[in-house]
Fold this protein.
Amino acid sequence: MKIGCPKEIKDNENRIGLTPSAAHAYVEAGHQVFVEKGGGLGSAIADDEYTAVGATILPTAADVWKTADMIVKVKEPLESEYPLMRENQLLYTYFHFAADEKLLKACLQRKIVALAYETVQEGHALPLLKPMSEVAGRMSTLMGAFYLAKSQGGRGLLPMGVTGVAPAEILVLGGGVVGTNAAHVAGGLKANVSVLDVSLPRLEYLSEIMPPNVYCLYNDPVTLESKLKTADIVIGAVLVPGAKAPKLVRREHLKLMKQGAVLVDVAIDQGGCFETSHPTTHSDPIFTVDGVIHYCVANMPGAYARTSTYALNNATIKYGLALANLGPEKACRDSEPLRHGLNAYKGAITYKAVAEAFGLEYKPAESVIG
């Protein structure tokens, strides 16, 4: 199979879909690999690192899309890339369809095969979402702390405090991978940290592994409102796989909060978990509503591109090789995790939560791949 990896074009998206090691793995398996010229520079990977392992460098993204049977990316195709998608072409990347109807309809119209990283599922685990959730979770606390500075419009509060001055109050909504990593960093900063979740087993687990300044609480409306009143930083870390994120913090909640508090919406790829959120970019990362700063960058891990690129490829290569070696149909028939990852197949929606998000027809993957 011909594997293509174009350069990412989303604002300040410096990750790339293939590392040289991943490219080498495809070549060793008998596939041809084509990488866009300069595609890895944002992750400090030079073109000659790809050619050294047998990949071919092509001059433009259009050349890569035209040549490849399977495209390996990081982020969803943007509107300028829609015309480059070809019927029956396999795209292996993050899509987050439930938050982008225009992208979904473009993929259906072009009749591609969309294998979404974010819904590949083994048991209850999302192995291709996890590495970026780790990066985004750890980064969310750092961004919250940065924008809490007065020079950035925040309250002017040092998260860890100093002698004689209390530390910040950090509220984490959701105790999954993002929330766990956010709370670990916040706890390490010696802030007062509260993690809210609705799973008692998860809260019990977090209570066992977290430092003593991290408190794990059951999320109900009364507790949420109480914590919003005292929070200096709120990190939204909720996830419903493949579906739109629930809106936990409403517009009216902002009136309860301190002026200059910071909201970091890590769920923005799936529509956001704050009612007042909308996607932002690394070039223009924040906006303010009712005196509360919102950080809603939709590709947070792109800021730490080299770390993120290698972490992502460590997870994606296993499934990518299965898709390339067997073809998407047989690979999805043989692998339940990959069947979960199949979101669209040649004009049909094959992931239920995506279809439900827009009231469109759903066809189980088994019914379309034979």
In short: The chain has two domains: 2-126+304-369, 130-303.
